[in-house]
Amino acid sequence: MPELLRKPFGTHGKVHDITPANAGWRYVGFALYHLRAGETAAEATGDTEVILVMVEGKAAITAAGQDWGVLGERMNVFEKTPPHCLYVPNDQEWSLVAETDCTVAVCAAPGKGGHAARRIGPDGITLTQRGKGNNTRHINNIAMEGEDYCDSLLVTEVFTPDGNWSSYPSHRHDVDDYPDITYLEETYYHRLNPANGFGIQRVYTEDGTLDETMAVKDGDVVLVPRGHHPCGAPYGFEMYYLNVMAGPLRKWRFQADPAVQWIMDRDA
After folding, report:
1. How far apart, in Å, are the Cα atoms of 115 and each of 118, 148, 198?
2. In this structure, are residues 170 and 228 in contact, taking their beta carbons and an 8 Å threshold?
3. Threshold 0.90, pTM exceeds
4. CA 116, CA 119: separation in Å to the nearest integer?
5. In sequence order, what DSSP letters do the residues of 147-169 get, joined into one string?
6. pLDDT of the residue at 267
């Protein structure tokens, strides 16, 4: 099995490039650029649709034959303000020029030509609390099932306070059996505040054939090909992650680990 924990392969330029081929799966791609003011990036979407997420900083973007102007507002992801994003369908091109130092995520999945290029956010994205107690976290939904922006992609941001758990109670979405559960591959792009900290992510199946627990650092990406995938933020270190999901059906249906089902029942 390919390594689930992916470290950035640099500090500047394209620092992540996860594809279905190197991930050992079929649907999700994820890339990340760290650019200095004045630098450029450009790609053709090919057979994938993409959502460009301005994680930090500002950039002037042209895509699908249109000038979208300068996107981006927050200079630090932990400001928690809604992100500026751009959806670009398959068989198109995009390019950007960094107006400031910036971090840009490229979230990709198979495109079917069903949607036109469009801005996503900041309008319409509201930071929303989920969970309770030490399971509290805050969500910026970018393109989840309720937003009909995409053919395949499901994308969201999650902020987990220090000392809390997230993507918990443990759940999986690894079987194509809608409406009970859907098959969705998933990536987690992690950030930590302060940046010199660490978080924990476990990826495991109920039968134990997959069971990996990883210390994630600022900038790491974790692949979730199957199984449950909870995260923990140690006391003193706030955790952010950007999720990208995709599969044969653009629906998010999951099942809890039987060991923690009682928690979901109690907190429902």
Report:
1. 9, 9, 38
2. yes
3. yes
4. 10
5. S---SS-EEEEEEE-TT-EES-S
6. 79
Strand partners, 108: 29, 50
CA–CA gap between residue 208 and residue 92 (Å, rounded): 42
Partners of 171 in the β-ladder: 256
* Cα 12 to chain centroid, rounded: 20
Give the pairing of strands 185-193 and 238-246: antiparallel
CATH code for the domain in which residue 24 is found: 2.60.120.10
Residue that is written with structure tokens 């009909």 in the block? 148
The burial of 265, by beta-carbon neighbours within 10 Å (0-12 exposed, 13-18 middle, 19 or more buried), is given as exposed
Q: For the beta carbon of residue 41, count every other beta carbon within 10 angstroms.
A: 20
Indicate the burial class of 58 (C-beta count within 10 angstroms; 0-12, 13-18, 19 or more): buried
Maximal CA-CA distance, the chain: 53
Structural domain total, the chain: 1
Cα–chain center distance at 80: 15
Complete DSSP assignment for 202-253: EEE-TTSSSEEEEEE-TT-EEEESSSB--EE--TT-EEEEEEEEE-SSS---
Query: Three-state SS across 6-57?
Result: ECCCCCCEEEEEECHHHHCCCCCEEEEEEECCCCEEEEECCCEEEEEEEEEC
pLDDT for res 237 = 98
pLDDT tens digit string along 128-166? 999 999 999 999 999 999 889 999 999 999 999 999 999
Residue count of the chain = 268
Residue numbers of the domain that contains 58: 5-267
Strand partners, 94: 43, 63
**What residues of the chain score a pLDDT lower than 50?**
none
Q: Are strands 238-246 and 154-160 parallel, antiparallel or unpaired?
A: antiparallel
